[in-house]
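Task: sequence in, structure out. Protein: IS1272 transposase.
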Amino acid sequence: MYQNPTDTITIIPFLTMIKETYGRLPEYIVADAGYGSESNYMAIIDDFNRTPLITYGMFIKDKTKKFKSDIFNTQNWKCDETNDEFICPNHKRLGFNRYAYRHDKYGFKQDFKLYECYDCSGCPLKNQYIKSNSKSNKKIMKNYNWEYFKYQINQMLSEPKTKRIYNQRKIDVEPVFGFMKAILGFTRMSVRGIDKVKRELGFLLMALNVRKIVAQRATLFDKNKENDNFYIISIEIIVFCLVRDIYVPACFILKAISYMTNNNYNSVCTIRYLYAFFQLIMYCLIPL
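Result:
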């Protein structure tokens, strides 16, 4: 849980915490495009010595026919590697001008090579290249470090093994959030502050874990319901699980009742998954 508007800067602290807690990291670091950035790729490869399977913002769009056929997109311009020049659709050349750098909004330094057209005067396509009414020649900036990482990601996600690993993320991770939001209706927090939010989210995740236990128990009961001795054994196991592992403080219940009385909108989700939580506990006791 992080107090950041975007995912980009959260993955490195998360990986650091995982490594400190468990002593190691998996071979592949899998995440969606929200975590794809030059700084994250560098940290995962250089600092953690792991392989990132993380797409970037333009990963899908880069492969579309419309994107590849856009002659005004500088990424589609021909490159003369021998002379270190780019060639525009009007066959004018943009030569290397100088090195440049800038810092992103998180303070990470990005290095660029700046290319500039030798002469854009009289070019009929100039208005398509340069959106402003500037009299200067066309300039483009290339971040070859970023281009390298994008190439590596595209290569890895084209291989069957790594592509299968990346696709597994959609199966393992996304359904959990989908169930929380679509089925339980948990779309927003009812409290403020990182500590309170962590506790509230903890109750929700605890309810999800109980749901999984219930599903496993139900399967076990269906397979063994004809065995008379099974019910005696199962009673001891389930009661033990309920007593040792399931804990809902009284203050949380009283707070939920208070919210219900005041008809607070933000508490609807809290009441909903709390009610579902107790339903799951009672469902565990049905076979008894």
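Residues 232-257, 263-273, 282-288 have pLDDT under 50 and may be disordered.
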